[in-house]
Design a protein that fits this description.
One of its GO terms (cellular component) is acetyl-CoA carboxylase complex. Residues 67-160 form the Lipoyl-binding domain. One of its GO terms (biological process) is fatty acid biosynthetic process. The chain is an alpha+beta fold and 160 residues long. Among the domains are: 3-33, no CATH class; 85-159, RNA polymerase II/Efflux pump adaptor protein, barrel-sandwich hybrid domain (OB fold (Dihydrolipoamide Acetyltransferase, E2P)). The protein has four helices and ten strands; from the N terminus they run H-E-E-H-H-H-E-E-E-E-E-E-E-E. The longest helix is centred in the middle third of the chain and has 17 residues, at 65-81. Residues 37-47 and 53-80 have low confidence and may be disordered.
């Protein structure tokens, strides 16, 4: 990564509602955090963004049950409601369900899609990456919301 790319990433992080962000690519590693107390207390920032580390912290605490409730529908949705193949995010970025704020969504639940049709756009480092349908089928589930930050491998859409 060059200095301009890092500065752009820092500016986007600063303007976002994210509290922490980490990026690893071969020899490069970046960690941004708006949680100053955590940075001082924690010596290894890489484990912080890992979801399994956050779940045990959330489960025993009663005040943060909303996060536990959010985790339950994802697992139950994949078991009971979800049918079809999962289209996963190939990169980290911001997911957009439409080409613009005043434009219709690329796909909706129940839509028939053709192989190669754009399902979602993921913006990474100011580059818009179209995520195509891997096969013909029907959209059974949309797993992300517009302008949601997605990680590599996160489920975006299910196609049956």
């Amino acid at each position: 990564m060059n200095l301009n790319e890092i500065k752009d990433l820092m500016a986007q992080f600063d303007q976002s509602s994210l509290k922490e962000f980490s990026y690893k690519n071969g020899t490069d590693e970046l960690v941004f955090s708006k949680n100053e107390a955590k940075l001082v207390a924690e010596t290894s920032p890489a484990p912080q963004p890992v979801v399994p580390a956050a779940v045990p912290t959330v489960a025993p605490q009663a005040p943060t049950t909303t996060q536990v409730v959010e985790a339950v529908p994802e697992s139950s949705a994949s078991e009971s409601v979800a049918e079809g193949d999962l289209v996963e995010s190939p990169l980290v970025g911001v997911a957009y369900l439409a080409a613009g704020p005043d434009k219709p969504n690329f796909v909706s639940v129940g839509d028939t899609v053709k192989k190669g049709q754009t399902l979602v756009i993921i913006e990474a480092m100011k580059v818009m990456n179209e995520i195509p349908a891997p096969k013909d089928g029907v959209v059974t589930e949309i797993l992300v919301e517009n302008e949601e930050m997605v990680e590599f491998g996160k489920g975006l859409v299910r196609i049956k």
